[in-house]
Design goal:
- This protein is an alpha+beta fold.
- The chain has two domains: 79 residues, 3-Layer(aba) Sandwich (Glutaredoxin), CATH 3.40.30.10; 117 residues, Glutathione S-transferase Yfyf (Class Pi), Chain A, domain 2 (Up-down Bundle).
- 58% of the residues lie in helices and 8% in strands.
- The protein contains ten helices and four strands, in the order βαβαββαααααααα.
- It has a four-stranded mixed β-sheet, with helices on one face.
- β1, α1 and β2 form a beta-alpha-beta unit.
- α1 packs parallel to α3, α1 runs antiparallel to α6 and α4 runs parallel beside α6.
- The radius of gyration is 17 Å and the shape is globular.
- It binds glutathione.
Length: 221
Amino acid sequence: MARTVYFGSGSPYSWRVMLAMELKGLEYEAVELHFSKGDTQSAEHLARNPRGKIPVLIDGDITIYESTAIMAYLEKTYPEVPIFGADAREYALIWQRYAELENYLGNTISSILAPIFRGEAEGKDAEIKANLEKLKAELETVHGWLSGAGYIVGDSLSAADVTLYPQVALLRRVGPRLKESYGADFLNFEEKFPAFLPFMARIEALKNYDRTYPTHWRAAA
Ligand SMILES: N[C@@H](CCC(=O)N[C@@H](CS)C(=O)NCC(=O)O)C(=O)O
């Protein structure tokens, strides 16, 4: 069955879906849409997702958008390699951690980076610095989750881990800029949050990790 993921380079929502597919060992074609070219707002893409967002998965005759729904669909359709745990306890905890990452860490990252990326950060120093404090507290919490076995839940990679990874990769990338502009010195993960490093290495060791890596990050490297 043909599988296609429409993704945007650097979109954490796209990246988590691609990583989830890699965890499950699924083949797919990855089609990049470019925000700057208006690809997500084209009639063709709006037919896939009327909200004009990526990711979108087309799997045979099914089209799904919203990364959470896509991961849930993948689990139901391809259960051989589970990403939502082995039993009810793990299932609940993975969903809980997923929701915490989305609602607290993810929203805090967005509140910091959205004004910066949109060129609307001027005059918002106090707000951004306050949100950086919230970010530090969230990272401390997540660091605690990883300090045991190095997975968010249990002893294998899950939907929670592939949700966290793109968030941390993005923070590592923008860390120097946030330090320079706002004095955020806690984004030195080697020193401040060492438990993230083996966690990240595990994701980076996935067989086809490279094909999930944001294309414009690679081009800039
Ligand atoms: N809740 C959605 C969020 C998707 C989303 O916000 N995608 C952004 C990129 S990170 C997007 O497609 N933006 C395109 C646009 O707004 O034109 C999900 O989980 O899939």
